[in-house]
């Protein structure tokens, strides 16, 4: 069995900018578990424990779902919490650019995987990056301060050329993410990717 999810990767620059943003808000947030830069991604769908024999079918479905989708840019920004400001347990940032495109990808992925037997998503999809979690509700003035003071946060843009199927391995030290497959958004992008890797392998 493999614990799987599908996500969009951020650029290294965006991860560094978000890490700097986390350092800033650590100054007034305590008792929070912060997501490490390597764990930052836009999750499209969580599959959970999945039999290895299903992975080939999942890969085929993902390739078919996104191959006709054009590349697009995203810019991360805005601030938010789940499930509500009064009972916040998850700190996240959203997208200033690319919301519609990411939501479209999530819908395509969901339809593709539903067609091969996975449960469809019951909740509406909100593109977001979890940057911190709390074991209990965060009380006091911290959340209003975060939502007001950090609303202007904005990263640099990056171009999205595909989505990634990840395996998540859990340990006492945290989660480790292993790439099982990358489904490219266009044949042209895929061709250039393999050409670049071939040219740089010697």
What features would you describe in this structure?
A five-stranded antiparallel beta sheet has the order 2-6-5-4-7, sandwiched between helices. A four-stranded antiparallel beta sheet has the order 3-1-8-9. It has helices at 12-25, 55-66, 99-114, 142-149, 187-199, and strands at 2-9, 32-34, 41-50, 72-82, 90-97, 129-134, 158-160, 162-171, 174-184. The chain starts with a strand and ends with a helix. It has five helices and nine strands. With 202 residues, the protein is α+β, with helices and mostly antiparallel strands. The chain has a single domain (2-199), classed as Cyclic Phosphodiesterase, Chain: A (Alpha-Beta Complex). α2 crosses α3.
Strand order of the largest sheet: 2-6-5-4-7
**CATH class category label:** Alpha Beta
CATH architecture: Alpha-Beta Complex
- Level of helix content? 25-40%
Which runs of at least 5 residues are low in confidence (pLDDT < 50)? 189-202
- Distance between the amino and carboxyl termini: 36 Å
- The H-and-E topology, N to C, reads as EHEEHEEHEHEEEH
Summarize the structure.
The chain is of the alpha+beta class.
List keywords for this structure.
202 residues; alpha+beta; Cyclic Phosphodiesterase, Chain: A; 4-stranded antiparallel sheet; 5 helices; disordered C terminus
């Amino acid at each position: 069995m493999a614990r799987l999810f599908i996500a969009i990767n951020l650029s290294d620059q965006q991860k560094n900018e978000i890490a700097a943003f986390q350092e800033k808000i650590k100054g007034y947030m305590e008792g929070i578990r912060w997501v490490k830069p390597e764990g930052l991604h836009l999750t499209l769908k969580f599959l959970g424990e999945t039999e290895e024999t299903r992975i080939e079918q999942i890969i085929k479905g993902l390739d078919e779902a996104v191959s006709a989708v054009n590349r697009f840019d995203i810019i991360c920004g805005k601030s938010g919490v789940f499930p509500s400001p009064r009972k916040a347990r998850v700190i996240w940032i959203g997208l200033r650019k690319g919301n519609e495109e990411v939501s479209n990808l999530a819908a395509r992925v969901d339809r593709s995987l539903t067609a091969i037997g996975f449960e469809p998503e019951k909740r509406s999809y909100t593109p977001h990056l979890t940057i911190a979690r709390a074991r209990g509700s965060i009380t006091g003035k911290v959340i209003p301060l975060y939502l007001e003071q950090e609303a202007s946060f904005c990263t640099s843009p990056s171009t999205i050329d595909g989505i990634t199927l990840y395996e998540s391995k859990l340990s006492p030290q945290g989660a480790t993410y292993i790439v099982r497959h990358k489904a490219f958004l266009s044949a042209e992008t895929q061709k250039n990717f393999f050409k670049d890797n071939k040219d740089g392998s010697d």
